[in-house]
Design brief:
It is a single chain. By secondary structure, the protein is α/β, with parallel strands linked by helices. Helices cover 33% and strands 19% of the residues. Strands 5-2-1-6-7-9-8 form a 7-stranded mixed sheet, with helices on both faces. Strands 3-4 form a two-stranded antiparallel sheet. Helix 2 runs antiparallel to helix 4 and helix 7 packs parallel to helix 8. The chain is globular and about 50 Å long. The structure holds S-adenosyl-L-homocysteine and magnesium ion (MG). S-adenosyl-L-homocysteine binds next to helix 4 and strand 2.
Length: 242
């Protein structure tokens, strides 16, 4: 698999459920995850591989146990694939997921870039629009009561955010600046004992773009505020310790 610098890695965008071979390792999903919900996640377009989505779901459930009552937040929802795993974990925990995305796509999703899907451009506007696909995916997964879309630029939402969060998942812009801003904007809102999950973390540059690793994962560990508890594929899960 080739992974572009700065690109969302971990599998091709898929419209249909991923091929059986690709899904085989985690075919059944974790105990307790409704197979229908998992199938809805796999049916959504996006970049979250099944075993990493399963790990996200498990981690979010643990975070809710550790820090009850607090909501979850995702940066970078695209067409709702990771959103479904996280939204289901939120629903089960009796909380909600805020899903932050401007829905205009990252740089690497734009026409001419490797991770562009032509069907996602709104022809009347001439820009990408993943919001209708996101909305449909959340509806089809039965999660409209547990997922609150926040449509706008992540740094602006972060600047006005005040609620402590049990779980923050960062999978937004993968350039240096967006990754740095997501680190600065969102990590202070992770409650003590809550979790920070980061996607597309590639310690080896041969595997993919560096910013999530260099601008989010490493600074989080080096700050002394977070310690790592799980790694699956390019997903890293950290717990807030200070
Ligand atoms: N988590 C998704 C993939 C996310 S792709 C999945 O499971 O498939 C990255 C998303 O981040 C894109 O939808 C893009 O619109 C969004 N994004 C990038 N930069 C952003 C920013 N500054 N503010 C809000 N959303 C952003
Ligand atoms: Mg990703």
């Amino acid at each position: 698999m080739t992974v572009p610098v700065g690109g969302p890695a971990g599998g091709s965008p898929s419209e249909a459920p991923a091929e059986p071979a690709a899904d085989a390792p985690g075919e059944a999903g974790p105990a307790g995850l409704d197979p229908g919900v998992r199938a809805a996640a796999l049916a959504a377009r996006g970049f979250m591989p099944p075993e990493e989505g399963d790990a996200l779901w498990e981690a979010a459930g643990q975070a809710a146990d550790a820090v009850p009552e607090m909501p979850f937040l995702e940066v970078g929802s695209y067409c709702g694939r990771s959103t479904i795993w996280l939204g289901d974990a939120a629903r089960r925990a009796g909380t909600v997921l805020f899903a932050v995305d401007h829905h205009r796509g990252s740089e690497e999703n734009q026409p001419g870039w490797e991770w562009h899907e032509p069907g996602l451009v709104d022809p009347a506007v001439g820009k990408m629009d993943t919001l209708p696909h996101f909305r449909r995916a959340v509806h089809d997964a039965g999660l409209e009561a547990a997922v609150v879309a926040v449509v706008g630029p992540s740094p602006i939402v972060a600047r006005h955010w005040a609620t402590p969060l049990a779980f923050v998942f960062i999978d937004g812009g993968h350039g240096d600046e967006p990754a740095r801003l997501d680190y600065e904007g969102w990590t202070p809102h992770v409650a003590m004992g809550g979790f920070l999950a980061v996607h597309d973390v590639f310690p080896d540059p041969a595997d993919g773009g560096r910013p999530p690793y260099e601008r989010i994962y490493l600074p989080a560990l080096e700050s002394g505020r977070f310690s790592e508890i799980r790694a699956v594929g390019s997903l890293r899960v950290l717990v807030r310790v200070a």
